[in-house]
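Problem 3 from the worked examples.
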Amino acid sequence: MAIHPVEYRYGSEDMRRVFSRDSWVGYACRVEYALLEALVEMGLIPLGREELEGVRDRFFSVSYEDVARLEKRFGHEVFALVWAIYERVGEPVGRYLHLGLTSNDVLDNVAVMQARDGLEILLRRIDVVVDRLRLFVTRYASTPLLGRTHGRAATPITVGFRFSVYLDELLRARDGLARMLDYLPGKIGGAVGSGVEMLPHSLELEKRVLEKLGLRRARAYLQVLPRDYFSRLLSEVIHLSAVLEHLNNEVRMMMRSGVEELYEEADRVGSSVMPHKRNPVDSEKVCGLARYLRGLLAPVYENIVFEDERDLRNSSLERIVIPEAFLLVDEQLVTTARVLERLRVDEARCIENIRKEGMNIYSNVLLHMGVSRGGDRQVLHERLRRIFRTRVETPEELLKLVMEDDYLPKYLTEEDIRRATDLSRYVDACLSRLDWVFRL
């Protein structure tokens, strides 16, 4: 019976497979098998390679049901796993299972391998979003848009210019996630991390096992990997979530009634009772999930602290937090890619929203033109502020008001007003930035 929405609503099948219970068993069996391979190679156990390879299929046939059945009996997950493998492979291979290991040599390496494989899925998803967003930025690079600060009309920009910021944020988030692929290490250290059980072979054994698992070796640890590895990993994942919210929140804002500069080309029901509604439900979902994900950061950082060589306070939290974070950000990425695929700009509405503001939105450039001609910035600012206390509708009306002032005509000409109110000036400014940043 599915209870948690992650089980039936959020996350792709690819990501579910990484964090499924059967996959967990598969990863754990890989650790145990890699250990036996290394022990055989080093001549530390009286088994031959052929003997080990002969039970490989049975070794990896262990299921979660097998482990769950035995965990009910023993009350210990990893012990149940080892016993389940033993039941499948029998003697003599079974007697050498888990030699020199502690439970977290299995658990931590499994978590790292799951994170690694989950990261590769997230990186592929980001690449799709980046490609679609880059196409959107390019397509609307020169589409004029009303700039807004504090929710109020500011200086005109372009749609592509605004969304280039979200593209750059995503690229930085991708870089952060990609670094985590090489950041997360593995470990084979025994009960307290010293490797005393396999001395003097413990370091070579660890090296061989981790090479087989495709993991680098942690520099220092006790019974468990230090949890700052996982807090930093999840910080990067949740950072990506917030970046996705930033983008999707902008989509929401630009789709509002009265703004309506964006729309989705999608035939979907917006409301069960209002047939006219076209709601940004996908973008809202991304934003809602981001709120939840940010709440995971505090307990993740609390996990950095453990006592002596380890305690168990981190375990239950990580069982929830790590799969949830990956699955929910996976859902955000899939959803964002769908939003961008359908997203279109109402260019006529963008122009209309600019025109509605009249000449007031050009005050910034007028101010700088006046200062560059030698005017006093504070005086110019105050004189222009008085003019723009009410809406000025046309360049002709603006020229008349400027010429009637006893200070402004010294520093502002009719040509200045024409150039300041020419929308192409603002488009060119944005294009120059886009060309420099993205080489469109």
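Problem 4, a separate protein:
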Amino acid sequence: MYSKEQASTLRQAFWTAFGQYMALQPTADGTKVNWVNYKTGIKHLYFRMNADQHTAKIAIEISHSDLGIQELMFEQFKAYKNILVGSIGEEWDWSLHSQDEYGKTISSISKCIDDVNIFKQEDWPKLISFFKPRIMALDEFWSDAKYGFDLFS
């Protein structure tokens, strides 16, 4: 068991290492991006990567406080589902109006893996192998699809 400080330090070390590993990787548009804190350019729409002592998750997260707008954004992603699946090469889990860990209602499209631990450095290659191709595939998808979401910005 780790103290909060130790856990925070290890978590920060992983995300720093991942960010440095990805730093030279250009986006689909050929620009530089902060892969760990990917900016979609649309308010309340995020590409999130999380890991803890049991799982890792990458997600498209819609967190607009107006649930009607949140649902419209989710439906827009459904309209782009074939393009999204074509970019990422796999099916993800679709969840409209679920609760996040803070009790906030969000909608998400996500992929998880189990049996990984961000606090074990020997799991870091597995985590990087999980996150890297998926965040790059999301970027490739977003390069084409972002214009269909301009009405939400």
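Solution to problem 4. The mean pLDDT is 95. The first strand starts at residue 45 and ends at 51.
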